[in-house]
Amino acid sequence: MCACFARDSWRYAAPPAVVGLFLLPFSLVGAAVAFLAGGAALGFHRDPDRSPPGDGLLAPADGTVSVVREADGRLRLGVFMNLTDVHVNRAPLAGTVEDVTHSPGKHWPAFTKESDRNEKVHIEFEEYTVVLIAGAVARRIHPYVEPGDSVERGQRIGHISFSSRVDVIMPEGVEREDLRVEKGETVRAGETQLVAE
After folding, report:
1. Domain boundaries in the chain?
2. What's the maximum distance between 2 C-alpha atoms anywhere in the chain?
3. pLDDT tens, 129-164?
4. CA–CA separation, 125 vs 141, rounded Å?
5. 192 — phi, psi (to 5°)?
6. What is the Cα–Cα distance from 165 to 151, expressed in whole angstroms?
7. What confidence tens digit (pLDDT) does each residue in 61-74 have?
8. Catalytic residues
9. Class of the 57-195 domain?
10. Per residue in 75-95, pLDDT tens?
11. What is the pTM assigned to this prediction?
12. Which of 95, 133, 128 is nearest to 116 (CA)?
């Protein structure tokens, strides 16, 4: 697999490509539509390299900041990823994975309040937590890490197939006024500083 695509991306691109091959002798239009669908699925799962800045807590996802709120005494920031965003998610800080927990749930649109009840995967680190949340279209969350894994700042930790949301529950002591971004701003996984050190 080329490093420029997310893991398991061929499982989404291959079926329409196979259909296209089957349709080729019978319908050029049908085959073209199937090949385009396969290409779109592969393009959606692109995974470009990123260059983290020297310090700071980084965005875990590409997209738009859609959530900034207090939750159980900690600051929570959510990034909504639409269909055109890169959906590979990255570690905001270096650390060791303490737990990876899957929680079944609904599939509400990821930009709504109801999405708090959606299917999700919690990736727990010593100081912070990243929450991968499935959206209305996203039905597959693919964590790349396991308990005990050590990760670097900006390292790939998973991806979600199709539109969704990724939240980071900040380390204790991080306040709203420490944020370098606001709701509605666009961020890039592994490159945008959410909090400066």
Report:
1. 10-44, 57-195
2. 63
3. 999 998 766 568 899 999 999 999 999 999 988 768
4. 18
5. -80, 130
6. 21
7. 999 999 999 988 99
8. 164
9. mainly beta
10. 999 999 988 899 899 999 999
11. 0.82
12. 133
